[in-house]
Model the fold of this input.
Amino acid sequence: MHLIDTHCHVDLYPDYKKIIAEAERLQIETIAVTTTPSVYSRCVELTKASRLVHPAIGLHPELVANRHRELSVFVDLIHETRFVGEVGLDYCTKDEEERRLQRCVFGHILEVCARSGDKILTIHSRRAAAEVVAMIGPSFPGTAILHWFTGSAATARDALSYGLYFSVNPTMPASARGRELLRLLPRDRVLTETDGPFVIINGVPARPPDVYTVLERLADCWGISIKDAAVVVSRNYCRAMNAVSSS
Ligand code: MN
Done:
């Protein structure tokens, strides 16, 4: 079974070597997101012997207030990888100036990514889903994956009409809103993620193999076997990887 984890903070596990070795052993394609461009280079070092763990360059919206100056590092390094994340907006802050700064940084990141046309972005949108989807827009050249989406059904529909993907983690099917989202999403737009080590399962941080529990829920929701659900998600990942702008 070919497993996919499109959002895992590999560099934040104390035993990251084990996480990487496990992903290799179990053949789990893993996007190793980072929270600032300055730690991206370290993540590249950690994962350089791995075929399946892909370092992504990110600038987490919750860190933008303190780290927005690292945007220049992001721009300098972006040519090194197709994988971008974690980026996006987080409106847990009520500070309008901070929100403005987040939009400014995310807008710039989208612009830089659009120029190359083949980037794969894993995007945070807590309490800012409508704004994030509007900023990505209907014709973004590249692949945009909404990670841990908690926006409204109307925003999800907009995102679907724009061709965006959704990555589902093990905690999402546990909430009513998460289950509603699963029912609404066409199978060909669903990917799996763990968001480990932030997501906790049974008291321990999630690891890439925990995408299996997401597949169980997807299989249940779709009325197919877990193996077939894995094939659907793996196909979606391949399609997302091969989406390259024609312009
Ligand atoms: Mn995350």
Summary: Residues 7, 9, 33, 86, 195, 198 surround manganese (II) ion (CB under 6 Å). The CA atoms of residues 84 and 121 lie 5 Å apart.
